[in-house]
Amino acid sequence: MSERSPLPPCLFAFPGPLRDRLVAAVLAGEKVSTTGLLAEYERRRRSCRRPVSVPW
User: Fold this and answer.
1) Whole-angstrom Cα distance, residue 43 to residue 56?
2) How far is residue 18's CA from residue 49's CA, in Å, rounded to a whole number?
3) CA distances (Å), 28 to each of 10, 21, 24, 55, in order?
4) What is the Cα–Cα distance from 56 to 46, expressed in whole angstroms?
5) C-beta of residue 48 within 8 angstroms of C-beta of residue 38
6) 1-56 confidence digits (pLDDT tens)
7) Cβ neighbourhood burial of 35 (10 Å; 0-12, 13-18, 19+)
8) Is the pTM of this model over 0.85?
C-alpha cells in the first residue's frame, strides 16, 4: 500500500468562541459538512460548477 500524504488542516472561523464550538462539533461527529466551498473556489480562482436541478 502506498503512503498517503496528510490532509490539509481544516480551519473554521477566527480564533474565539465560534471556532471553539465548531471544532468541538467536528470532534464529536456532529458537524460533517461546511458551506465554505464557494469561498475556496473563489480564493483559488476556479470556476464553480452549476448546481443540478433536483426533480422533487
Assistant:
1) 33
2) 30
3) 15, 10, 6, 34
4) 30
5) yes
6) 568 778 777 777 788 998 898 889 888 988 877 666 677 777 777 666 666 666 65
7) exposed
8) no
